[in-house]
Amino acid sequence: MVKVLLRIDEAADALSISRSTAYELIRVGAIRSVHVGRALRVPFSELEAFATRQAEDPCDRGPGDRVPNTLEAATLMQTADRKAVINEGAAAGQGGDPETKATAR
């Protein structure tokens, strides 16, 4: 019988990645997961969809173009979102980056 929902370690093994990378991909939304009670599971179909997205056709890119992987792209988007929030706060007179203020003291 084929499993429909996989534990995180099984999903990581299926993708040949570490368990922590699998959790990170779930956290950033690159791989969808479901809760069954308190257990976190990954649908097998989601692994297939993720692998398909990662195997993007390289013919659409030039020879020197590099496409960031899903985890890099999600991290870049989060960084851009954080900077936008900081800039909006500074423009509204609420100050800048709280980390910068803490280190400036």
Give the mean pLDDT: 76
Strand order of the largest sheet: 1-3-2
CATH-assigned fold name of the largest domain:
Arc Repressor Mutant, subunit A
- Report the span from N to C terminus: 61 Å
Tell me the CATH architecture of the largest domain: Orthogonal Bundle
- Please count the helical segments: 5
- Estimate nothing, just give the exact number of structural domains: 2
Helix proportion of residues, in percent? 40-55%
The percentage of residues in β strands lies in 5-15%
Q: How many DSSP-defined strands?
A: 3
What order do the helices and strands follow? Answer: EHHEEHHH
Q: Class by helix and strand content? A: mainly alpha
Low-confidence stretches: 58-63
Fold and architecture overview:
54% of the residues lie in helices and 10% in strands. The chain has five helices and three strands; from the N terminus they run E-H-H-E-E-H-H-H. The protein has helices at residues 8-15, 19-27, 44-54, 70-91, 98-104, and strands at residues 5-6, 34-36, 39-43. The termini are far apart. The model is unreliable at 58-63 (pLDDT under 50).
What is the gist of this entry?
This protein is mainly α and 105 residues long.
Name some characteristics of this structure.
single chain, mainly alpha, 5 helices, 54% helix, Arc Repressor Mutant, subunit A, three-stranded antiparallel beta sheet, 3 strands, 105 residues
